[in-house]
Amino acid sequence: MIGSANGVRIGITGLGTCVPERVLTNDELATIVDTSDEWIVERTGIRERRIASDEEALSDLALPAAEEALRDAGVTGADIDLLIVATVTPDMMFPTTSALLAEQLGAEDAAAYDLLAGCTGFMYGIAQAYGMLAGGLSKRALVVGGDVLSKILDWRDRSTLVLFGDGAGAVVMEPVGRGGFLGFELGADGAGGEYLWLPGSGSRKFDDPESFVKMNGREVFKFATRVLVSSANAVLEECGRTVDDVDVYVPHQANRRIIDHAVAKLGIPEAKTVVNVDRYGNTSSGSIPLALADARADGRLHDGELVLMTGMGAGLTWGSALVEWTERGR
Ligand SMILES: CC(C)(COP(=O)(O)OP(=O)(O)OC[C@H]1O[C@@H](n2cnc3c(N)ncnc32)[C@H](O)[C@@H]1OP(=O)(O)O)[C@@H](O)C(=O)NCCC(=O)NCCS
Fold it and tell me: 267 CB contacts (<8 Å, ≥6 apart)?
């Protein structure tokens, strides 16, 4: 799907993040599986990632991220009427992490639900919130993207273990006086679902009771390099903008080589591209908000600037958004 609610200004007015304290370096990983810092850095650009403790679940990261986003927006949980948590690692299937979070934040009147779209979850979440805000059903939304993939990885499988990390980010979305989202492009290709999947995690029964992330890295790589370019170009064209108009490019942080490929193909200068995969690895739905927060902390995200975000992940899914950043623009 592609498009926008023409003329309606919905923006991001608050941003917050949270990652676990525990840093896991490549050298430490090399003591667990047959890998090396050299291989991981060369093939992925990842140097370290954050890993949740045994006691930490998604809501333990989502809550501080959400609280920071609410503070940033100058509102409280009671001011939120829609709460979406995009994740593939909720605390449990139900109650949803969003319902738990609504309770913790005091968002008593909020509709709250979890959303599954692989690593693209955050992009789907902000598109849904945008639609509900633009349609007048919601007045102010909180969208959390976060995952603790370390809990569902096979810690014996070096091909997936080295790629992922844990983290969460949250945004407050609401009508703004200027700027805001210009459009979205989202898609899914179930034919590629077998390239990144979690067997045994739902109602389909498998002989093998193990439930760990399984991946065909080469196929996902090909898919990622293709959709990061096609989805970005599609949303730019839909919104009547070009790559030259983009001030800040926030791609999903899966692999430095995938980002480099997209940057080269799109023709976006490296200086405009946000990269933090070296410090966090692939945090799935946490990836885009963590990168947005890093860009802002580095002084690279200013009022009025055009931000292009593209996510991709299991499904296989992808999603892009174009937004004119509004710093305290209500
Ligand atoms: C996974 C990925 C880094 C592998 O890089 P690659 O250059 O394609 O490497 P290959 O899969 O061709 O493997 C090359 C060799 O390295 C080995 N290898 C794989 N993981 C390794 C690791 N962690 N350490 C050392 N060697 C490893 C392979 O076994 C293979 O050995 P072989 O040639 O003897 O068979 C890359 O394919 C990728 O990033 N894919 C996208 C994954 C992704 O982003 N998933 C999430 C999307 S949201």
Answer: 243
Among 26, 255, 276, 282, the one annotated catalytic: 282
How many angstroms does the Cα of residue 217 sit away from the middle of ligand 1?
6
184-215 pLDDT, tens digit per residue, is: 999 999 999 999 999 999 999 888 778 999 99
Residue position matching structure tokens 């892009």:
320
0.85 surpassed by pTM: yes
Question: 152, 221, 231: which to mutate for ligand 1, most atoms within 8 A of CB?
Answer: 221
Q: How high does pLDDT run on average in the chain?
A: 96
Distance (angstroms) between ligand 1 centre and the Cα of 48 equals 17
282 lines ligand 1 (CB under 6 A): yes
Verify whether residue 282 is a known catalytic residue: yes
239 labelled catalytic: no
Tell how far the Cα of 281 is from the centroid of ligand 1, in angstroms: 14
**Token couple for 136:** 């007048």
Concerning whether 255 is annotated as a catalytic residue, the answer is: no
Question: Mean pLDDT in each 10-residue stretch from start to end of the chain (330 residues)?
Answer: 90 98 98 98 98 98 98 98 98 98 97 98 98 97 98 97 98 96 98 96 85 96 98 98 98 98 97 98 98 95 96 98 82
Report whether residue 231 contacts ligand 1, using a CB cutoff of 6 Å.
no
